[in-house]
Amino acid sequence: MDTKNKGFNSKLIHAGGFHDRLGSAVTPIYQTSTFSFESAEHGAQCFSGESDGYIYTRLGNPTIIDLENTVAELENGFGGIATSSGMAAVNAVYLGFLSAGAHLVSHNAVYGPSRAVMESLYPKFNIKSTYIDTTDLEQVKNAIRPETRLIFLESPANPTIGITDIHAVCKIAHEKGIPVCVDNTFCSPYLQKPLDLGADVVLHSMTKFINGHADIVAGMIVTKTKEHYKMLRSIMINVGCNMDPHQAFMTRRGLKTLAIRIDRAQQNALKVAEYLEQHPKVEWVKYPGLKSHPQYELAKKQMSGSGAMLSFGLKGGLSAGKTMMNNVKLALLAVSLGGIETLIQHPASMTHSKLTKEAKEKAGISDGLVRLSIGIEDIEDLIEDMEQALVKV
Ligand code: LCS
Can you name the CATH fold of 259-390? Predict the structure, then answer.
């Protein structure tokens, strides 16, 4: 059905545009690598584009296209390009916008591997990058060079929860003809719509909130224009970082409950943040829903909710952090985020361990920083778990 004028929850459930001839209530898994043509002529039409028939799953598959259409509609974009992982989406965007001699500007606390791959692999193609605090617009202006070809944002950033003014950065970038890509993993389209704020491309690790059940690794790119869609789709196809139909089915299924999962998780997150903020063993808490967050007002303007991610610093640094993590019982000590279960992790020794000490300091990742991805458990149990672990710190 056409869901263009329907509400967000209705879109979550009914968007995608797939119609099953047999009346299946959900889009089936087309677990096939290839599709047969009706005739030589039909095959020729599929290849020329005269017919929109399917050819080969790396190029397109009904289960995957249903998911691509759905996420594109949720993000108010032109089209979606599903990828094998969030990192595949990140690299497809890098490859699409950056050619030899180009320069990238990005946030110094983006997801660790998004930065690590840029600094380790891309210099061999003579691609340069500058990592700054994009929450400071002066730094953004100063980092731009004549050869800057992409600004790559993540907001809230991982794991410092710094909020970048997406609209303001897009304005600065567009005055110089530079496209902006936003990694919207932490928010999902339920809480933030970067394309509406001016961005050209948005991407997701759908491993997180969009799938939401910690049982799939997947990525998605959504573009505002047809031109960027065609360019990035061709990269996905030719690099071969396509999604698998089963992965698409699982993700589409998880996506249906995105809003109710996030509603509950962010209610929990606010209560946990408030609890931690008053705890004597906690030095600071960063959560966009707390008035103490430096970009509280911007978060309220740019996001429609505060999300389920928060970080905090323990008095006592590294050893306090480790003690806490070794003593939580309900929260799982694990990387990743955005699932229905609460996860706790320690960026300095895990996701951001490859950064130098200096880079970690610049990115605001102290030794005592602990990151929480809050799930949908009962709040009393979550607070009790934090309490009993903090007693041991
Ligand atoms: N972007 C963000 C903001 C992420 O948090 C991650 C993964 C990725 C991209 C990459 O996505 P993937 O390829 O894993 O689907 N974030 C992780 C994290 O914080 N801990 O483990 C993975």
Answer: Aspartate Aminotransferase, domain 1 (3.90.1150)
